[in-house]
Design brief:
The complex is a heterodimer.
Chain A lengths: L1 H14 L25 H15 L9 H4 L3 H11 L3
Chain B lengths: L1 E9 L3 E3 L10 H12 L11 H14 L12 E7 L4 H10 L10 H4 L6 H10 L5 E5 L5 H11 L7 E11 L2 E10 L13 E2 L2 H8 L2
Parallel strand pairs in B: 3-4, 3-5
Antiparallel strand pairs in B: 1-2, 1-6, 1-7, 5-6
Helix pairs in contact in B: 1-2, 2-5, 6-7
The chains are: A mainly alpha, B alpha/beta.
């Protein structure tokens, strides 16, 4: 799980162009959107593409996003259970 | 109109009449080190393009510790100028879609292919709901800057402005000269505020610092 959390942090930094940010600076449990990492709707699109491209996960129900993108840990749990590659 | 304070941030130095954060290195390294030394908690900074980072950080230094910071207001405008527009990001974006076999128009990249995004970043951070605009000029021209900013104060709302020259030609070559300008007559011996008159000569002097 820790390995996947770290892998996702690195992918977030790359996909969202978080220039100069290190994985250690991303709190495992902090909200990804709003406060915390401060992501916005444009970033949500990047995350959906990231899941499909890197893990073969297609988000069928956009409403799920709120829970899946709650934090890096929540994202890792979802990827762990639903990944196709 | 009075210039209350100013900041000039370039690829290798920061000059201001305000306290300046410690920094090391040049270019992107300078931006990151000064941001970290400022102790600002704003993760969105890392997402910004270099043009926005330079304008944002210069404005943070300009406004650090100022009264009423982050109280929503409509009477402060953000008026910026440059000559390279968003060329640096346009080039970057073109590279990301150049390979016909492996391309993706990343929103995180193309959102910055407009120069006025930096005015929005400053307005969002500081909760400014007044005028924001960005002008692309052939060169840093004190006459145009002085006239356009002065004109902005002719509406019934604007009483102050964050304005100046914010330009970026590549990720390690940038310049952000920002002023806090207020709609009040400059008084040489004023008890509060200080500063200097808003005029072409003073704008030129600060641009050339």
């Amino acid at each position: 799980m820790n390995e996947l959390v770290n892998e996702l942090k690195l992918q977030l930094i790359d996909a969202l162009n978080l220039d100069g940010m290190t994985p250690e600076e991303i709190d495992d449990n902090a909200p990804l959107f709003g406060d915390g990492l401060g992501l916005d709707s444009i970033d949500a699109l990047e995350l959906i593409v990231l899941l499909e491209k890197n893990y073969g996960i297609k988000l069928a129900n956009p409403a799920e996003g709120k829970e899946i993108f709650r934090s890096v840990v929540a994202l890792a749990e979802y990827v762990g259970k639903n990944r196709k590659k | 109109m009075t210039i209350r304070s100013y900041v000039k941030l370039t690829s290798d130095r920061i000059v201001s009449d305000r306290p300046v954060p410690c920094f090391s290195g040049t270019g992107r390294e300078l931006l990151l080190s000064a941001f970290r030394a400022s102790g600002i908690s704003y993760p969105k900074f890392h997402k910004m393009d270099t043009l926005s980072k330079a304008g944002f950080l210069a404005t943070e230094i300009l406004l650090e510790g100022s009264d009423g910071r982050f109280v929503p207001r409509e009477d402060r405008a953000v008026i910026l100028f440059n000559s390279a527009s968003s060329l640096c990001d346009d080039r970057h974006y073109c590279k990301t879609i150049a390979d016909p076999g492996n391309w993706f128009p990343s929103p995180a990249v193309f959102v910055y292919t407009l120069p006025n995004i930096v005015t929005g970043e400053i307005a969002i951070r500081n909760k400014y709901y007044g005028e924001t605009c960005f002008y692309v000029l052939p060169e840093p021209d004190p006459e145009s800057i002085c006239r356009i900013v002065s004109d902005a104060f002719q509406d019934r709302m604007t009483s102050s402005a964050i304005c100046g020259w914010v330009d970026c030609t590549d990720d390690d070559t940038f310049e952000a000269v920002v002023f806090l300008v207020e709609d009040c007559i400059y008084e040489e011996n004023a008890l509060h505020g200080g500063g200097m008159p808003w005029n072409m000569e003073n704008i030129r002097t600060i641009l050339n610092k």
